[in-house]
Amino acid sequence: MTLTYMTGFGNEFATEALPDALPEGRNSPQNCAYGLYAEQFSGTAFTAPNATNARSWLYRIRPSVKHMQRFDSVSFPRWKSAPSEYSDAPLGQFRWDPIPLPKRKITFIEGIRTITTAGSALDHSGMATHIYMANASMENEYFFNADGEMLLVPELGRLRLVTELGILEIEPLEICLLPRGMMFRVICLDKGARGYICENYGQRFTLPERGPIGANGLANSRDFKAPVAAFEDKETSSRVTAKWGGRFYETSINHSPLDVVAWHGNYTPVKYDLRQFNTIGSISFDHPDPSIFTVLTAPSGEPGTANIDFAIFPPRWMVAEDTFRPPWYHRNIMSEFMGLIQGQYDAKEKGFVPGGISLHNMMLPHGPDAYGFDKAANADLSPQKLEETMAFMFETRLPQIVTEFAANHDSLQKDYIACWDNLEKMFDGTIEGKK
After folding, report:
1. Has 366 been annotated as catalytic?
2. Angle at 111 between CA 417 and CA 395, to 5 degrees
3. What is the pLDDT of residues 104-120, one digit of tens each?
4. Is 221 helix (H, G, I), strand (E, B) or coil?
5. Rg over CA atoms, the chain
6. What per-residue string of b and e applies to 311-321 under the rule 16 or more CB within 10 Å gives b?
7. Which of 67, 264, 287, 366 is catalytic?
8. What is the pLDDT of residue 303?
9. Are 13 and 232 in contact (CB under 8 A)?
């Protein structure tokens, strides 16, 4: 399958899979072409400011009220929502090895495992972090998440995301953002797939303000891709699963709900290639704050403090003079969930591998391990290119509570905190020490 896309972030798009399926000059004509139904799909309140208002008009074979019957409760016990229900959640700095792919057949939705939760899904505040694993496709199975939008970060294997508004394919080093409430199914294009998910309960992800950087740089709008209209007209027994209020529900219908023949608007899934990120950094001295690596941000009610930031640490030149080049030791109001897609992370060259996870929560100190510190403190400070690497961070202003699954999984590195044991006291208060 050769896919085409429309480009831009937050653009007003218009696309049709059949000629003249989009009405001209109005959104809801008395009779739509091809016997379609007009429907508005809103991601914000009707009265949200123009700059943040998100909605798309869909022209579909059946209205979405036909895509649901009576719901029954179902259970996905390893997919958790905030607020946390784990009363014995541990505190500390944590790191996990990659969680192995299951041997049994498992679809994308069945293979989601929650690592941390923060805030409250019911209050539309905070987030949850998950890993996904899949080795089977969702054929006549569909899903929508009313609790939040889902940011997918593949680490292993390619996925085809068949959504109401069209089809996207993603691979490691690409990401996909699925809007709240969007119906979709996931097809595995390889033998197995694994990656990370940030489930954002709060305001939608957007591009960060660049401030003094100016009009260009970081993740440029033109590099985001939205799908063109594509529809399924299938009369077959199908299952729709919904996540709503932290719980799961299921209903059966006799057709595919992905039946949008045409649409226009700005509430749409998008994909982005992380290799297109235009990295900004110091060309004189000091390692800049990690905010300089922000790809997407989800605002909170507090100016300058995000509900979530999604940042990456991509290949880049290191040229700063008289500078400790890796990230410095720090404590932070933000809580940092990190993953590694490929290569090594410069502050943790040992023990943090692709598919792994680290968690450094609010106000808990962290920074380079002893090996990384020694290497950076004695490194030749000629210009160096960091290559074949891609780490990322889901960062939130809220504490991230570890789930029971993550706290007790065999992949948890019990000795992670020992990575700082060999940091020795070097203080010398004499005149010689000053030199």
Report:
1. no
2. 45
3. 999 999 999 999 999 99
4. helix
5. 23
6. bbbbebebbbe
7. 287
8. 85
9. no
